[in-house]
């Protein structure tokens, strides 16, 4: 029987999305810890990247009583092709936000806090003082809690970065996200060189800090390009690497070119350790803050022996 749809119309149809494989399973949010974390965030008028970016691990992490705080509002000045955080003109910075975040960390009794933010390119300092304020206030209210900051690139500004580094976070994270060839397609307003400057300068500004970065796979990169990017990150002094599968948030975002098999993630982890990363998290649902506390606890003592006397916090 002949098709009722003209051939020209069939050619114009968008490609059908790839079927999600069986190993991509997301835990549904539920349970008392999830409800408790949600209530703390709502009561203190805070945002989390878990919700804003639709992280697949929200159920697991909130169920364990932890979350990744999102500073400086819920509106980003950049429009990356993979990210579900809304883009636009953000509101004025809320200088009381660091206090509320620190109070939430205290209420959750965290031993390791992960703090990130939207991009605030309308400011010369990119909002770096907010990061510094929240690090210092957490140290005051929750002694012994280590702090990991997942920061923007501040357009490669060493001056903005130094504001954050002066507060001495235990982990300084900036995600490179993808390989050099795809960088402008995936992150139109970013530059590969800004990522390099951020990660390289962090170690120079504080030799005691653990540096970290992350890569998404499935956007069309080749294995050789992926390994080259991992090599770049090591040459910039990065200690910790996360590798996870890109999951398309909606039809308007970049399509998934392919799904990586768990065995491929295992092989990437082995390669990362071979070339010198001190910790590699690699798996389909791995994201930047996945197992973050385990990383800092396992690495910080040895790192201090290698690079310095350690943080006072």
Describe the structure.
This protein has 313 residues and is α/β, with parallel strands linked by helices. It has a single domain, classed as Alpha-Beta Barrel (TIM Barrel). Helix content is 39%, strand content 14%. The chain contains twelve helices and ten strands. The strands form two sheets. It has an eight-stranded mixed β-sheet, with helices on both faces. Strand 9, helix 11 and strand 10 (279-283) form a beta-alpha-beta unit. Helix 6 (128-141) packs parallel to helix 7. The longest helix is centred in the last third of the chain and has 16 residues, at 292-307. The chain is globular, with a radius of gyration of 20 Å. The mean pLDDT is 84.
What is the element layout, followed by pairings?
Elements: H1 7-12, H2 32-43, E1 47-48, H3 49-52, H4 58-63, E2 68-71, E3 75-76, E4 86-87, H5 97-108, E5 112-117, H6 128-141, E6 146-150, H7 158-165, E7 171-173, H8 183-186, H9 192-205, E8 210-217, H10 223-235, E9 240-245, H11 262-274, E10 279-283, H12 292-307
Parallel strand pairs: 2-5, 3-4, 5-6, 6-7, 7-8, 8-9, 9-10
Antiparallel strand pairs: 1-2
Helix pairs in contact: 5-6, 6-7, 7-9
